[in-house]
C-alpha cells in the first residue's frame, strides 16, 4: 500500500540542496519504486500538479507530475531543449504554502528522463505541463519558485 508522505516546507535546508543523480543500479530498487508510488499518492492527495523528491525529504533526482494521461514518474529528468519564447503564469508550491506569484518560464521544452523501468524517454511539453516540469526540476537544483516570482501574494489560510 502506498502512503501519503509529509511535505517539507520552506525554510528547510533540504529544499536548498542540489539533489543527486540516481545511479543506474538503483533503478530496480524496490524502495525507489515504492517512493514513486508514495509520491504519486501524496501529489494526488494534496492536489499538486507535481512533486519533487526533496519536498518529501529525499535529495535525489526524481519527480512525479500529473499529465492528462495520468501521473508519471521521471528519474534523472533533464531539459534538453527550451523554446526561445517564454510566458508568465501563476504558480504555487506545496512546500511554500499560501504563497502565489507569477513566474516567467519557457513555453515549450524537450525533456529526457528514465522511467521506473530504466527506459530512456524523450518527452515534449508545452504550456502548463512544460511549466510544471520546469518548476519541479528547479526543486532538484535547490531553487524555489519564490526565487523567480513577481507579484508575490500571500493568501490567508481559511
Ligand atoms: Zn514546488
Explain the overall architecture.
There is one protein chain. The protein has helices at 30-45, 127-140, and strands at 50-52, 62-67, 70-82, 86-93, 96-106, 108-114, 120-126, 150-154. It contains 2 helices and 8 strands; from the N terminus they run H-E-E-E-E-E-E-E-H-E. With 158 residues, the chain is of the alpha+beta class. A hairpin with a 2-residue loop joins strand 2 (62-67) and strand 3. 30% of the residues are buried. The longest helix has 16 residues, at 30-45. The strands form 2 sheets. A 5-stranded antiparallel β-sheet has the order 1-2-3-6-7. Bound molecules: zinc ion. Zinc ion (ZN) binds at residues 93, 95, 135, 139. Zinc ion binds at residues 93, 95, 135, 139.
Helix content: 10-25%
Largest pleated sheet = 5 strands, antiparallel
Shape: globular
The H-and-E topology, N to C, reads as HEEEEEEEHE
Strand order of the largest sheet: 1-2-3-6-7
Record field, number of beta strands: 8
Structural class: alpha+beta
Question: In percent terms, what proportion of residues is strand?
Answer: 35-45%
Number of alpha- plus pi-helical segments = 2
Low-confidence stretches: none
**Ligand types:** zinc ion
Could you tell me the mean pLDDT? 96
Radius of gyration: 15 Å
What is the first-to-last residue Cα distance?
A: 32 Å
Protein topology:
Elements lengths: L29 H16 L4 E3 L9 E6 L2 E13 L3 E8 L2 E11 L1 E7 L5 E7 H14 L9 E5 L4
Antiparallel strand pairs: 1-2, 2-3, 3-6, 4-5, 5-8, 6-7
The protein binds zinc ion (ZN).
The site of zinc ion has 4 residues, from helix 2.
